[in-house]
Every structure is written in structure tokens, then in C-alpha cells.
Amino acid sequence: xxxxxxxxxxxxxxxxxxxxxxxxxxxxxxxxxxxxxxxxxxxxxxxxxxxxxxxxxxxxxxxxxxxxxxxxxxxxxxxxxxxxxxxxxxxxxxxxxxxxxxxxxxxxxxxxxxxxxxxxxxxxxxxxxxxxxxxxxxxxxxxxxxxxxxxxxxxxxxxxxxxxxxxxxxxxxxxxxxxxxxxxxxxxxxxxxxxxxxxxxxxxxxxxxxxxxx
Length: 214
Hints:
By secondary structure, this protein is an all-alpha fold. The chain is 83% helix and 0% strand. Helix 2 (28-40) crosses helix 5 (150-158). Residues 83-89 have low confidence and may be disordered.
């Protein structure tokens, strides 16, 4: 297995471990803390951005592996139909063709399952988050003190996709910095306007003063 397919296999194992972590029957408070951390963590947001680029590469590998499977099957059919449907390839050549077909199919299934599991992870995360919100609402109606307000309840209510809150916070901080820059520029322009107004008034005052004849 080449290096990039080995990395795809490690990614598949990581997705399986993450999926098991999501469906693990943890207590309600633990799951709430886990999902709020995933939603608010800046590290998760960065990882999610990097994973999008990686999944594009995996998609390219999947398309390439599908093409290889069709190519090997076409070569196998051509060699089988060479003499009126009789197989004329030797034993070694036939084993090589079967091995190429096996490797191509293995790579296709590996990349396909990795992409498919990534979609399942995203959908599972959203469904579990909705279930947690409904469960917290039921506990609040029942008068459970663990679900009566608090910081964790507010964080769970505002939780979105993985790293979404952290992403929105960074965008809000960037907008605040832009607004502060605009305020500084506006105050500087206002001071400059006042200085020019004073200079203009002083010049007009000097021109309006009566001159004494010598």
C-alpha cells in the first residue's frame, strides 16, 4: 500500500474511532460538555478546515481508483476475448491481472468508505446535538436541577456545527477590529477637519482685518 493510501486508511480508522466516541452511551452532562467543546474549540475549527482539503484529495483518489478498476476490467475482458472467448494468458500474467484488479478495488472501497463515513459523522453529530437539546428541554420541564439554566445549557443552545462557534467568534473579533480601525480613522479625519477649519478661519480673519495706511 502506497503512502497516501496508508494515510487514507489511518483517516478511516480515525473516523471509526470518532464515530464510536459519538455514539458511546455517556452521561448527559458528559455528552453536553463534549459537544459544546467540539462546537466552541478553535482547534476543532482549524482541523475541520484542513479536513475539507484532505477530503478533496481523497475524492480525487477515489475517482482515480474507479478509473483503474474499469481499466483493469477492460484489459481482462480484452485478454479473455482474444481467441474466441478462450483465456490465452499465462498463469503468471493472469495472476498479475487479478492482483492489479484486487488492489484497484481495494483502493476504491477504501476511499469510498472514507468519504461515506465522513458524511455519516457530520449527520450523526447534528442528530445527537438535536437529541441533547430535546433531552435538556425535557429535563427542564421535569425540574431536573442539572438542566436548569447555567453556562452549559446556554452553550448547548448556541452550539452549531463542529468548530462553528469558534469560527463565528473569530469573524466577530475581526469585525470588531475593523470597526475600531474605522473609528480611529474617523476621529483622525475629524481632528484634521477641525484643524483645517481653524486655519481657514484664521486666514479669513487676517484677510478681513483693515489695513492701516503708512
